[in-house]
Amino acid sequence: MPSFSLPALIRLMRPHQWLKNVFVFAGLVFSQSWRDGAVLERVLIAFAAFCCVSSMVYILNDWHDRASDALHPTKRHRPLASGAVPVPVGLALAVLLLLAGVWIASGSRALLFLLGIYVLLNLAYSWRLKQVPVVDVSIIASGFMLRLLAGTWAVGIPPSRWLLLTGIFVALFLGFSKRKAESFHSEASQRAVLAHYPAALLDTYIAVAMTATLITYSLFATSPEAQFQHGERLLYTIPVVIFGMLRYTYQVHRGRGEDVARDLLRDPWILAAGVCWLAIFLSRWL
C-alpha cells in the first residue's frame, strides 16, 4: 500500500488557491443579495463546487507536469513531483473531487455547464494551450470570468455589464502580472511560453489591462445603477482600488506576483487596501 500523509494530500489540493474562488461572491456583494438566504445558499454552493473542481484541475496539472516539475528548483517540492503523494493516490483524489463538485452543483444546470467549460479549458491549458502566447493568459482570465458568472447568472443574480467588463480586465491584469513575475526566474526554470513574451510587451499588456480595469471600475462606480444601489460609497472606493493595483504592480516588478492567492495575502498594504475598500462599502451598515 503506497504511503502518504494527510498534509501532503491537502497541499496537493492547493487550498490557498481557493482565494481565487471569491470571484463567485462578487455578484452577491454588489447586488446586496446576501440578506436573501436562498441566494446566499446558492452562491455558497457555487463556491464549494469551484473549490472542489479547481483542486481537481490542479492535481491533474501536477500529474501532467510531474516530470518537469521534478527538475524545477521550487516546483520539485510539489507532492506528486517529490513523491510525497503516489500518483495513483493523487489521481484517485482528483476523481473524488470531481465527483464531489458535480454532486454539489447537481441542482443547477447552469452551474454544471460553467464547471464543465472550466474543466475543459483548463485541461486544454495544461496539455497544450499554456504554450501559446496570449491564449494562455486568456484561459487564465476565463477561469475568473466563469467564477464571476457562476456567482451571478448561475444563481439568478442579473450580472451588471460594467461589473463583467471590470472582471474581464482585472482577470487579464492578474494573468499578465503572473507571467511578468515568472519572468524573474532563472532562464532554465522559466515557462517555455515566456520566450515569446519580451519584457516590454508584458509591461504593455499589464499597463493596458490595469488602465482598462480602472476605467471600467470607475464607470461602474459612477453608473446610475450603482448610484441607485450603493449611493456615493462606491465612488469613494476608486482611490483605494487605484492604490491596490499600483501596489500589486510594484510587487509584480519585484517578482512576487506569480501566485496571486499567496502574494495578495503577504503584502500588508494590499490587505489594508482590501479592508479599507470593505469598510467604505459596508459603511451604510457599520
Task: Give structural notes.
- By secondary structure, the protein is mainly α.
- Helices cover 69% and strands 0% of the residues.
- The chain is built from 14 helices and no strands.
- The protein is globular and about 55 Å long.
- The N and C termini lie far apart (55 Å).
What's the short version?
α12 (233-252) packs antiparallel against α14. The chain has 14 helices and no strands.
Amino-to-carboxy terminus distance: 55 Å
Mean pLDDT value: 87
The secondary-structure element order is HHHHHHHHHHHHHH
Q: Which structural class do you get from the secondary structure elements?
A: mainly alpha
- Stretches where pLDDT falls below 50 for ≥5 residues? none
Q: How many DSSP helices? A: 14
Helix content: 55-70%
Biggest sheet character: none
Shape: globular
Overall strand count: 0
Which band does the percent of strand residues land in? under 5%
Nearest-angstrom radius of gyration? 19 Å
List the topology elements.
Blueprint: H1 6-13, H2 26-30, H3 37-64, H4 66-69, H5 79-82, H6 87-105, H7 109-127, H8 135-150, H9 161-182, H10 199-221, H11 224-230, H12 233-252, H13 260-266, H14 268-281
What structural keywords apply?
single chain; 286 residues; mainly alpha
